[in-house]
Amino acid sequence: MNTKLIDWPTFIGAFVLLLGVVVPLIIFPEAGVEVVNQANTFMTSNFGVLYLIMGLLVFAFLIFVAFSANGHILLGDEGEKPEFNSFSWAAMLFAAGIGSSILYWAVIEWAYYYQGPPFGIEPESKEAIQWSTAYGIFHWGPIAWAIYTLPALPIAYFYYVRKKPVLKISEACRPLLGRTVDGPVGHIIDILFMFGLMGGAGTTLALGTPMIAEGISELTGLEADMTMQTFILLLCTAIFAFSAYSGLKKGIKLLSDINLWLALFLLGFIFLFGPTRFLTETTTNSIGILMDNFFKMATWTEPFGDIGAFEETGFPEGWTIFYWAWWLVYAPFVGLFVARISRGRTIRQMVLGTMVYGTLGCVLFFGIMGNFGLYLQMTGSFDAIGYMNEYGAPAAIIAIIGQLPLAKFMVLIFTVLAIIFLATTFDSSSYILSAVVQKEVENEPLRWNRLFWAFALCLLPLALMFLGGLGTLQTASIVGGFPLIFIMFMLALSFMKASNEDIRASEGYEPKTIHINRKKILERLRKKRYQQKPPEQ
Ligand code: NM2
């Protein structure tokens, strides 16, 4: 076992932090639930607005970058063409950023909004239906994808412009922090990034596992209990471990490709054999609602709830704030990946590409799967909400899929899809976690190191599932995401600093202000008109 390559302070720091959270939760589950819920309320009610402001600022910043001089920078050498065509690029982007959670939330998110809408709207009213179709797309839309893209800016810039491969987030802060990243500050940044990612993956794995368990239970008749859930988590780690260990590097790539086709098949099937027109119309309509209310949704803090003027629903804390935190904890990790696949694109293409393609992909899932559930509910053919309130969300998700023609087969496809998604989450997260704790990475992180983090990743979701409750799962991301708010700002500043310096230093660079000479233009126009005149007879 090669241990010389390991950056021990980061390795131990991150693992101790993880154990420091998980062990007390398992030893004192009851007090644990209490503490976790208090942490959730404390963070979201005091600092919730910070997450919302961060979301808006990141969105505005990326639009600014895309259309500024910095947006024209090519990520590569002069004249280089994009390494991947747009379709593969978008597919890889989606595969990296999206996991089993989209299967979970696309199917069921509307039911939560319908029962607990924002803006003081009557639950289960006609108005609530409208919002329930739009909010899912919002939480998986342009702001969310902007959060994903920001860390890709400095990382891609260092990779392809300054030609310095970066695998650590601390390294991406170097232009701003200088030498200090070589000391404890750098370790702290990396540990916080790892802690966030473990929190985010914890939320993903703890949501996905019970859903897979329900799918297997539906197919085999076995009970979806904690034993089965533990077994599933270990199975997914094992699938991944096997492919990592046997050197089947292509194994995971193959799994992601299978996943892409299975997902397209599932979406196509629901769209064609489900209520096609309803799905199309409702999705189109919800895009309109989203565009009309984009900023209202992005800034809804339920401001009058605290003083009793409004009934307090906890909508922003339970949803928008939680979601921004959840995207945030994955952001540096997805950023590393987006950077890697963006060689030969301009910064503007990379930024607009993630925001547009990412959002479109999510619209497909939510528009087709979510509105299918809504359709069943509205037409009275299946009471998804009643089912959810009685048996829980994971069971309701499987039951909704079970309403399709060829029910068993579709549940099988859905479950396999979720399992592969989960295995690829283990693969990619453990890759990054192990790479961050190494001083150097040649081709691949050390095998034992990777397996270590893959198994470490099981700990938090096991504890969270054991405690139970959606709020508990959300807390992992919300708490883990908090320090990342500040790291995001550092990443943005680092990028601006480095790229502005280089732009200024570039030979022949001239500021892009164009001075309009009105006189000349008028003259030219006059000449043109004269030329166009038909020759006089
Ligand atoms: N996000 C996209 O399981 C997953 O889909 C991982 C979750 C941040 C909500 C990402």
UniProtKB/TrEMBL annotation:
Localisation per UniProt entry: Cell membrane
Origin: domain of life: Bacteria
GO cellular component: plasma membrane
Keywords per UniProt: Cell membrane, Membrane, Transmembrane, Transmembrane helix, Transport
InterPro entries per UniProt: BCCT_CS, BCCT_transptr
Membrane topology recorded in Swiss-Prot or TrEMBL: Multi-pass membrane protein
Transmembrane segments: 12-29, 49-75, 87-108, 137-160, 188-208, 228-248, 260-280, 321-339, 351-376, 396-423, 451-470, 476-496
Principal subcellular localisation of the protein: membrane
Molecular function GO terms recorded: transmembrane transporter activity
PANTHER family: HIGH-AFFINITY CHOLINE TRANSPORT PROTEIN, HIGH-AFFINITY CHOLINE TRANSPORT PROTEIN-RELATED
Family that this chain belongs to: Belongs to the BCCT transporter (TC 2.A.15) family.
Stated name of the protein: Betaine/carnitine transporter, BCCT family
